[in-house]
Amino acid sequence: MRRTLLSCTSLARSGLIGSALAALLPAAPARAADLIDTLSTMLDFNRQELAVLATALALLGFSVVAAILLMRTRVRLVKNEARLRARIGELQLQADRFGALLFAEPQILISWPAGDNRVQISGDISLVLPRDSSPQRVLAFGTWLPPEPALQMDHAVDALRDRGDGFQLTLTTAHGHTLEAIGRAIGGQAIVRIRELSGLRRDLAETHLRYKALSDETEMLRGFAAASPWPIWAKGENGALTYANPAYVRATEANSVTDAQERKLELLDSADRTAMERGLKDAASFTSRLPIVIGGERRIYDVRAVNVGSGSVGVAIDASEAAALSSALVRMAEAHRRTLDQLSSGVAVFDGQRRLAFYNDSYRRLWDLDRTFLDANPDDSSVLDQLRAARKLPEQPDFRAWKAKLHEAYRAVETAKDTWFLPDGRALSVVTTPNPEGGVTYLFDDVTESLDLARRFDGLIRVQRETLDSLAEGVAVFGSNGKAQLFNPAFVRMWKLSSDAMRDEPHIQTVEGWCHQLYDDPVVWRQIREAITSIENRADVPLKLERKDGSVLDGMIRPLPDGATMLTFQDITDTENVERALRERNEALEAADQMKVDFVHHVSYELRSPLTTIIGFAHFLSDPSTGPLTPKQAEYLDYVTKSTNALLALTNNILDLATIDAGAMKLELGQVDVSKAIELAAEGIQDRLATDRIRLKVEIAPDVGSFVGDEKRVVQVLYNLLANAVGFSPQDSTVGISARRTERSVVFTVTDSGPGIPADMKDKVFNWFESRSQGSRHRGAGLGLSLVRSFVELHGGKVRVDSIVGRGTVVICDFPTDQAAHRDAAE
User: Fold this and answer.
1) For the segment 29-73, what is each residue's pLDDT rounded down to a tens digit?
2) Strands 241-244 and 232-235
3) Count of CB atoms within 10 A of residue 720's CB?
4) What CA–CA distance (Å, rounded) separates 491 from 566?
5) Contact between residue 157 and residue 192 where contact means Cβ atoms under 8 Å apart
6) Rounded Cα–Cα distance for residues 644 and 615 (Å)
7) Are 659 and 605 in contact (CB under 8 A)?
8) Is 660:721 a contact under the CB 8 Å cutoff?
9) What single-letter DSSP state applies at residue 483?
10) Is the overall model pTM greater than 0.70, yes or no?
11) What residues contact residue 319 under an 8 Å CB cut-off, 6+ apart?
12) What is the CA radius of gyration of the chain?
């Protein structure tokens, strides 16, 4: 039974081991060590399965059939086991040989099974770490590699394990050792081999690296030469062109480098080439700035050539701009000199040896120095000594120390400023500026007048300050940054602020917060902020603030020329109260006036109805058909008729004036015949003319014609004027009416020989109910001339009165002939 179990075990071993060997024998020698471990693991796993199998066979051992079968296979299993043991011996021998060969030199093997994070590390870890270190520390590449190679190694290992990407890297450890890392995917495992490069391999690797670096450098230089805009060339020992970049090909107008070589095209002309060859032969180098014609344009190039090996290389750098800039710099220096000569400030430039290199005429006149002395380029000390001897420098107790301090400017790096007060009463501003190339530039300005103006300005500012503080108007000035720069006590009192807080230059937003207790309208404060801080659209902004305490301020935001903004406030509470009272009184007067118009209008209408009835009955009674009347009755009836007619005319006048005053009067425009209008108006006063024995003189110009207007109202105007003239004229006198045409109007003139109108009454004759008899027979309500002015102005015309007391009155009415004026009047 035991033999049978051993035979089964041997058979299993032979089958499993054969399968493992068949899969692993083609592997590289580098895996020989791992092969043995893998076989042992597989054998351990198969022993457990065979034990179970042996147990099952033992239970069937009593079976005859099983015994016969086992006996038959026994011989076969023994033979297979013998062959398997012999093969295992051979494999073990081969694995030992491969292991000895694999670890003949120091190296490390790292392997990962596919899809498994378990790692197996073997080999000499002292290659990268101390011998007592844990093998797992080899995977921490950052512990024995610099950061960049460690990161490169991490990426390479991740790519090998994830995608099976092989790699070969040359690494340098932190201790200076050169290592080679090779990664491959073999037999479902990721294997990394790390070994030291030494001897021939290291030399070959270093040679390969140097060759690669040299190749990269060559390609880089060729790329640079090809991309360079400057012509670059190389020539052999015989002077023939061996290399040229595209810029050289374009400059020589060749088709290619070969074309330039075959046609022997040269960039320089023969004389310049001869000079370059002579320079290369004598000094192994040549440098010169030469003119070269490229593309039909003559430009300046800096040509440099050096001998390299048995040949030479050269480059031509475009220096046209540099040459132009150099010429421009020379011209600019000359222009600066000419400009400095025109300055009113004295300028003196001393070079690094402290000798006078330049001075302008203002400097010579300022110090009254001899031109011959200055042209001799004296040193700085000599100039100062001569000025001191002439008592033109400030008096100094220790002139030597003062001069030494002045000459510190030659070692300084920053500009220094000072003011010299000369014995003759002048004050000079002195600026000493170190020059970049060495030396010092002195700049002298006579500031005597400036200092005097500054003193005057300070006095003016103090006066202005006192004036501002004395103003009753509150004033505050805010800078372009929105901060308060100036204020007066009135402003502080007006807004109940603190003077100390305002002296800290608060921002307008801060001031706004303080003022909210008296006025908190956000719209107005936003307008003030925007006006103070805005850059564009700066204009005066009027303000009117009604504050919580009942006071009223009249303010103004006014931009100042320097970018600041002035904010002013004036307390107009009393003025506002008076204005409000006057406004209320005016409104009351307007209401009373309107009430008067409404009353007159209403009463006029109410009077017309009974007057019409009275007039009707009066006419009825005067009709003979109603029966005879006694003379007394006829006289009384005549009085009634005249009175009612006068009352009706008065009522109509009042109604017309009320209608005009209410703006409800509309003109019925049409053609007005001037002669006919005068005739109709004259008919209305014929009885009065006969009663008072007054003659009417009519003068109508032949070309007067007609004009556009309301005929009824024109006749009414003329009738009122004539009636007024007749009423003020004495008996046996003459009343005149004339009409003439001007360029833009028709002019009616009515004259009388009455008592005239005093000067103080001329402006009142057109008012309602303004009636003065002036010693005449005229009696009336004083509405006629008011209607005249109203109707003429409705037509767009004007009325004027010329009168001399005791000589009569002239009334002139202008009616415009312009159609547009008529339309405006009608509207």
Assistant:
1) 434 445 444 444 444 444 555 555 556 555 555 555 656 666 767
2) antiparallel
3) 24
4) 12
5) yes
6) 6
7) no
8) no
9) B
10) no
11) 289, 300, 301, 302
12) 64
